[in-house]
Design brief:
By secondary structure, the protein is mostly beta strands. It is about 5% helix and about 35% strand.
Length: about 140
C-alpha cells in the first residue's frame, strides 16, 4: 500500500512546454515572416529552470524579455536595410525583417524577482530560480515514540 498520491494538477514548465508548443506545428510555431521560431530547450534542476533559446543571428540588444504575472515572454524584432548613396541605383535590393515572440507560463514555485538572462555564443539563457519553499527537502527520519 502506498501513501503517496500523484497529482497532475500543477504541471511543470517542462510538461507545459511539451503539451503546448513542441508537437503543434500549426501557424503559431512560425513567425509572421514565415520563418520558424528559434529552438528552445528547457532544463530543470532542484534549484531552478533554465530556458535556452538558439538565436545565433541576433545580438543581446535585439531581445525583449517581459514578465507579466506568471507569463514570461521572449521576443525580438530586427530590421536590416541596405542603404544606397546618392547617384546609385538598384540592380537588386533585399530587405530583411525578422521577428518572433515566445511565451511560457511559469509555475507558482518560481521566484520571479530573481530571473536573470544572458546572451552568449548565439544562445540566450534565461535562468528562473525556484522559491526556497519549493525546493526539495532532504529525507527526514521520524522518531517512533
Amino acid at each position: 500500500m502506498s501513501l503517496v498520491k500523484f497529482s497532475n494538477q500543477f504541471p511543470t514548465l517542462f510538461d507545459r512546454f511539451f503539451d503546448n508548443d513542441l508537437f503543434d506545428w500549426s501557424n503559431k510555431n512560425f513567425s509572421l515572416t514565415n520563418t520558424t521560431l528559434p529552438s528552445v530547450n528547457i532544463l530543470e534542476d532542484d534549484s531552478s529552470y533554465e530556458v535556452e533559446m538558439a538565436a545565433p543571428s541576433l545580438n543581446k540588444d535585439d531581445f525583449k524579455i517581459e514578465l507579466n504575472n506568471d507569463v514570461l515572454t521572449i521576443s525580438s524584432e530586427k530590421k536590416n536595410e541596405n542603404e544606397t548613396k546618392e547617384g546609385q541605383r538598384y540592380t537588386r535590393k533585399e530587405f530583411s525583417y525578422q521577428s518572433f515572440s515566445r511565451s511560457f507560463t511559469l509555475p507558482d514555485s518560481v521566484d520571479s524577482d530573481k530571473i536573470k538572462a544572458k546572451y552568449e555564443n548565439g544562445v540566450l539563457k534565461v535562468t528562473i530560480p525556484k522559491r526556497e519553499d519549493a525546493k526539495p527537502r532532504p529525507v527526514k527520519q521520524i522518531a517512533i515514540e
